[in-house]
Design brief:
Chain B: It is a multi-pass membrane protein. Chain B: InterPro entries: ABC_transporter_permease, MetI-like, MetI-like_sf. Chain B: This is ABC transporter permease subunit. Chain B: It is found in: Cell membrane. Chain B: Keywords: Cell membrane, Membrane, Transmembrane, Transmembrane helix, Transport. The complex is a heterodimer of chains A (445) and B (320). Chain A contains 18 helices and 13 strands. In chain A, the strands form 3 sheets. In chain A, strands 7, 8, 9, 10, 11 and 13 form a 6-stranded mixed β-sheet that branches. Chain A has a 5-stranded mixed β-sheet with strand order 2-1-3-12-6, covered by helices on one side. Chain A has a two-stranded antiparallel sheet with strand order 4-5. In chain A, helix 17 packs antiparallel against helix 18. Chain B has 320 residues and is mostly helical. In chain B, helix 5 runs parallel beside helix 9, helix 5 packs across helix 14 and helix 6 packs antiparallel against helix 10. The relative contact order of chain B is 0.11. The chains are: A alpha+beta (445), B mainly alpha (320).
Chain lengths: 445, 320
């Protein structure tokens, strides 16, 4: 039938047009953004002239975290609404998985939430792209540690405020190790101790249980190792690739050994790990004994298996392996229509003692010194363990740096690809180094 | 395409050109008014962004800086100095080549079963169509991640038969396969179209052939497939277009990994556009995908004259 033929062609054409529309979607978003970048000044002006007294305002706020942090944050929002009935919130919270993707997409469409939680590593990019609003004068940072504030500053202006201070160390399954008769590590242990303990545990580990994750291609763990060996940052502050070839080969070969000896999980199991996910976190599942952790995360693991876990400093070598860093930042996005109210909320959130009592240490020990002292005075046992790691790392810990802008994708994509190739045995340490070096070229300035 | 225009011309000889156009404009004004809502939407939401993205593809547009016209530099970079482009295009082509035939075969197979007159058949149809209703969603992708994980149901199931499973979605050899399986599972709408096509085939063809002693197999290849070929043609084009744009499951289930084995083209485009904010470059990538899809569609339409059979085509000259 002729009809069939024509209507089919027509349907096929419609389908192709559908494709065009889908491709055009990118253009569409870009278009909105284009229009918006043309007029950021006007949004700003509108935000500052808007009257702030008593007018009902709904603030969108977005953060990542685990269940205890979600609950504490929601309680803080409720408290703020109780004190300021005109301000209500539309919270968007999730795990870390996919958080940056979601936020970046919203920001690209000029639709980012008013208040956003950002990782210190993203700060240089977000500030350079002018996606944030200056926080002064509404937000008072006089009680903050200068070192922590630096990560949220550009050209002398404060764009984001640090929420807490955390130490980078390791968490281990104390209960399992005691049961298997493996000695507990002590603060100040070295990388030699670490690898020796791995070898020692080999005979004691049952099938399907491993010493640690396959960190051969892990950006953060390798960073810690290179620091400890005195070779400095992996990416320098002025934006240069600085992986020390000898150190990198040494590190990856050591993990190659652990892999052949069955002390790290097989590649596919290793790749299925999702930090802090009750089902997919390999530490929580009892499959590995050690993994890296920040001092404030103990509470999350403890909520999965109470009393089982303990913290220890990142192993050291010539220098310390761990460091203190701001846990995360809170900022107001550029396109916020209620920037003033948002800043007032942030000021309350980081400075008010009442707020600190509610949010506790789920974002690290508060960066506000008064609040930190307040919480330290009556801290839970669990928080004291976290604080212990913080204090043990403090004296000679590495200096944390937000690093150069523009490298987020290098860490999130290129490094991850090499990590997979190493753990699946698809590339040798030498090839891995070469590949990283080549990939880095498109990011160097 | 060619044939259809000639048939049209034969059926209605063109009037003189000028009067033809005038009458086109005068008479159906009401018609244009009726389609105006669609037309405006199409122009504003599809055509305009579409051409804007073509324009962007020739610029270095990033979100935060003023853009500059850079000619074909984006395209040159993509084709000469972008290993990720080649890598992601390869994965996508593999995905299209594997998922499309499997999906069509599954849809046809199920449609043939469901075209039988059995009691309560409509409830079976509903049940089988159901996965397609929820198929494209994030929820199903998350479900998939759990089914094929190390501790997933799938491994528990095959453990019953003494086979030791692995983590299917985090293994570079099987990750793409699990995503293809998810696509195949969502055969519902394809299946419904097949089902409609099967109902159209006159029963007397089967009766006549069975009188002549044709086996079921012969009937399938000599009657069902040729009679169904226009439908197959349509479904093929739709499936190919859909497969090229695959994104959700790769993004949610595997996030392109492991080892980029599921890093499809749309994911690369997304990364350039929304995590690196290189919208000019991403627009160029989008246009390359569009050209590839059009090329695939044209290729299929071109070959269709060798295998698509229309009942009205007399003399069997198209029939092979």
């Amino acid at each position: 039938m002729l009809k069939w033929k024509r209507s089919l062609s027509l349907l096929a054409m419609t389908a192709i047009l559908g494709t065009l529309a889908a491709c055009g979607g990118g253009g569409n978003g870009a278009n909105n953004a284009g229009a918006a970048t043309a007029a950021p000044a006007s949004t700003d002006a509108a935000a500052t002239t808007a009257p702030s007294s008593g007018e009902p305002v709904k603030l969108r706020i977005m953060w990542w975290g685990s269940q205890p942090r979600h609950e504490a944050t929601l309680a803080a929002l409720d408290l703020y609404t109780k004190n300021h009935p005109n301000v209500t919130f539309e919270p968007e919270y999730s795990g870390m998985d996919g958080y940056l993707d979601k936020l970046s997409t919203q920001a690209a469409a000029n639709n980012a939430p008013d208040i956003v939680q950002l990782d210190p590593g993203w700060m240089p990019d977000w500030m350079a792209r002018k996606q944030l609003t200056e926080l002064a004068p509404e937000v008072d940072v006089s009680k903050f540690d200068e070192k922590l504030l630096a990560g949220g500053q550009l050209d002398g202006k404060q764009y984001a405020v640090p929420l807490g201070s955390v130490a980078f160390g390791m968490v281990y399954d104390k209960a399992a190790m005691d049961k298997l008769g493996i000695a507990n590590p002590a603060n100040g242990w070295t990388w030699d101790d670490f690898f020796a303990l791995a070898k020692e545990s080999q005979a004691k580990l049952p099938d399907g249980q491993y010493f640690t994750l396959d960190y051969a291609g892990n950006y953060f763990m390798y960073s810690a190792y290179q620091y400890a060996r005195g070779k400095g940052q992996v990416i320098t502050d002025d934006g240069h690739f600085n992986v020390d070839e000898a150190m990198y080969l040494e590190w990856t070969r050591k993990f190659e050994e652990l892999r052949t000896e069955g002390l790290v999980p097989p590649a596919d199991v290793n790749a299925s790990d999702k930090e802090n996910d009750p089902q997919m976190d390999l530490l929580a599942a009892g499959k590995v004994l050690f993994r890296y952790s920040f001092s404030n995360n103990l509470g999350t693991w403890d909520s999965i298996k109470p009393g089982a876990y303990a913290l220890v400093t990142m192993p050291r070598a010539e220098e310390a392996g761990g460091w203190l860093k701001p846990s995360m930042f809170l900022a107001v996005s550029k396109n916020s229509k209620h920037a003033e109210e948002a800043k007032k909320f942030i000021n309350w959130f980081v400075n008010d003692p009442e707020a600190a009592q509610v949010t506790q240490t789920f974002r690290g020990l508060p960066a506000n010194k008064d609040n930190a002292a307040l919480l330290e005075a009556n801290m839970s046992e669990l928080d004291k363990v976290g604080l212990g790691l913080l204090r043990a790392t403090e004296p000679d810990g590495q200096t944390w740096s937000a690093g150069a802008g523009g490298w987020t994708n290098f860490v999130d994509k290129d490094w991850v690809l090499v990590r997979d190739q190493l753990s699946f045995g698809k590339s040798t340490p030498e090839e891995a180094y070469k590949q990283l070096k080549e990939a880095a070229q498109s990011y160097e300035k | 395409m060619n044939r259809s225009t000639t048939t049209l011309a034969e059926a209605a000889p063109l009037p003189r050109k000028s009067s033809y156009f005038r009458s086109r404009w005068n008479a159906p004004l009401a018609g244009y008014l009726f389609i105006a809502p669609w037309l405006i939407g199409f122009l504003a939401l599809t055509a305009y962004p579409l051409f804007l993205s073509l324009y962007y593809s020739f610029t270095d547009y990033t979100l935060m800086q003023p853009m500059q016209w850079i000619g074909s530099r984006n395209y040159e970079r993509i084709f000469t100095a972008d290993p990720k482009f080649i890598q992601s295009a390869k994965v996508t082509v593999m995905y299209v080549l594997a998922s499309v035939p499997l999906k069509l075969a599954a849809a046809l197979f199920v449609a043939m079963i469901l075209s039988k007159a059995v009691r309560g058949i409509s409830s079976y149809r509903t049940a089988i169509y159901f996965p397609s209703l929820i198929g494209g969603s994030i929820g199903v992708s998350l479900l998939w991640r759990n089914i094929f994980g190390v501790e997933g149901i799938f491994n528990k199931l095959i453990a019953v038969f003494g086979i030791e499973g692995k983590s299917w979605i985090t293994n570079p050899d099987t990750a793409l396969g699990t995503l293809i399986l998810l696509t195949v599972w969502q055969f519902g709408s394809t299946m419904v179209i097949f089902l409609a096509g099967l109902k159209q085939i006159p029963n007397d063809l089967y009766e006549a052939s069975s009188v002549d002693g044709a086996s079921k197999r012969t009937q399938f290849f000599r009657i069902t497939l040729p009679m169904l070929s226009p439908i197959l043609y349509f479904n093929l084009i739709m499936a190919v277009i859909g497969a090229f744009q695959m994104f959700t499951s790769a993004f949610v289930i595997t996030n392109g990994g492991p080892m980029n084995s599921t890093y499809v083209y749309a994911m690369y485009l997304y990364e350039r556009a929304f995590s690196r904010y290189e919208l000019g470059y991403a627009s160029a990538l989008a246009w390359i995908m569009l050209v590839a899809i059009v090329a695939a569609t044209v290729l299929i339409s071109y070959t269709s004259k060798y295998w698509v059979f229309y009942e009205t085509d007399t003399g069997g000259k198209q029939r092979k």
